[in-house]
Structure formats: C-alpha cells, structure tokens
Amino acid sequence: MSDRIFVALIVVVAVLGTIPAVAGAVPYLGLALVILGLAAGVMGESPDVSQRTAIYVVAVGLPVFSNSLDAIPVAGPLVNSVLDGVAIGIQGMAVAFVLEQLKVRMMPGA
Fold it and tell me: How many H helices and E strands in the chain?
C-alpha cells in the first residue's frame, strides 16, 4: 500500500515540476523525485523478477520514448516534462531494487 502512495507522490511532484513558478521556487525537485523513488523501492513489497525487469525497462525506456512527444505542438513538451519526472522517480525505484538485490546476494541467509 505504501508503494502506491509513493508512486502517487512521484506523479504529483512530476506534475508540479512542470509549473514554472514551482520549479523556480523549489530547485531540488529532481532530488525529491529520486528520494521518493528510493523510498518507494525500499518500502514497497519485494517484487519478483518479472516486475523488477519491467521497472528496469520503464526506467530506461520512458525518457527515450517521451522525447518523441515534443513533436506535438502545445501539450507535447508538458507531457514530456511530466513523463521525464516520473522516469526520474522510477529510476530511483530501480536503484533501490538493485541495491536490495545486492544486499540479498552478499548477506548470508537468515
């Protein structure tokens, strides 16, 4: 349940990051997105291999695919900015999953 709250917060912060007044007033929105992503990855349930793989693919692919939205005249750059912010949060989740798997493989089983 808490991972859903963190993902919702990632989306909210990403949307707020597209507003110029908010982005100018809060210079560390990218850091906030990474911290929210790390918290979502650590606090959430440990996903299985297929879910982790999906997160890794989305973390790499979303910024690449969202750049093509810039071709849409008015809404494209805004949607691109929101998806880039969401991708930053998802990349934080991916880092948390990698660190968790490294810990599992390095620590002896209990």
Answer: 5, 0
This prediction's pTM: 0.88
Q: C-alpha distances in angstroms, 51 versus 15, 36, 46, 110?
A: 25, 19, 9, 24
For the stretch 11-38, pLDDT in tens is 999 999 998 888 888 889 999 999 999 9
Look up tokens 């808490």; give the residue: 2
Residues 6+ apart with CB under 8 A from 69: 76, 77, 79, 80, 83
Please report where in the chains the tokens 């599992």 appear, as a residue.
Answer: 104
- Of 98, 9, 105, 85, which Cα lies nearest the Cα of 53? 98
Q: Are 80 and 70 in contact (CB under 8 A)?
A: yes
